[in-house]
Amino acid sequence: MIRIPLVAGNWKMNGTGDEALSLIDAILPELQEVQDVECVVCPPFTVLYIVSQRLSGSGIHTGAQNMFWEESGAYTGEVSPLMLKQMCKFVILGHSERRAIFGETDDTVNKRVLSALYHGLVPIICVGETLDEREGGMTDEVVQCQVRLALKDVDLKYSDEIIIAYEPVWAIGTGRSATAEGANAVIEGSIRTILKQELGNSISEATRILYGGSVKPDNAREFFIQSEIDGALVGGASLKAQDFVEIIRAARN
Ligand code: 13P
To answer: What's the whole-number mean pLDDT along residues 138-157?
Structure first.
């Protein structure tokens, strides 16, 4: 089963208008020749439109970092799938920072996933265990539960539109990445297994699963050569043009 590698940059809460455009202008020429990796840039909502305009026709996609599940209405401060689909193809959902800081639950992540799929957005669903959960030997249980609940009631007709990102919480922004073999084992043993149970064998085999957590140019290749890792969700290093470009180059088969 050939799965096209995907590398997405999650800018988190970084990037004013000027900063966003200079970053895009620095990466764009470097990525012109990269054909065989799907590249996604996920800036904050405030610059999503200008970034999507700048990237238009380049082959590099944009993604949002979150969304609400309703289409419109009295939801102050929220952004809807109808608004996003005008300017991006992907949306990160259930990031551990949303779960830990903003109180998102498996249930609200599931509502977002169902809404994103219904509206034609591709969700990048984040799952991962905390350090306590890992040390308590609960990694598989936690990750499987997050995947199962995020996908509850998903219509199989949308199943080729789902991306999972395995991001161990203890590896995010800490400089302490999982070992490539360890991440591959969780993805193979937990995530593909639960995908198989929930969505069937062929969908499990076709679904792209990314690793995220302190991915840098000097460790990216180790992750990408693993059989079950199909790319990366990159935080800090996606804010440095050269680092992001090197990670994308490392993902080429
Ligand atoms: P870092 O690459 O900064 O560890 O962040 C990972 C992440 O949270 C991507 O969503």
So the answer is: 96
User: Own/partner pairs for 74-82, CB < 8 Å, 24+ apart?
Assistant: 79/45, 81/115, 81/116, 81/118, 81/119, 81/121, 82/119
pLDDT of residue 1 exceeding 80? no
The structural domain count of the chain equals: 1
Give the pairing of strands 231-234 and 61-64: unpaired
Average pLDDT over residues 3-17: 97
- Site to substitute for ligand 1 among 170, 177, 215, most atoms within 8 A of C-beta: 215
Closest C-alpha to ligand 1, atom 5: 235
Among this protein's residues, is 95 annotated catalytic? yes
Residue 211 lies in a domain: yes
Task: Note whether residue 1 is domain-resident.
Answer: no
pLDDT for res 175: 83
| Residue located nearest, by CA, to atom 1 of ligand 1 | 235
Q: What domain range is 37 assigned to?
A: 6-252
CATH of the domain at 52: 3.20.20.70
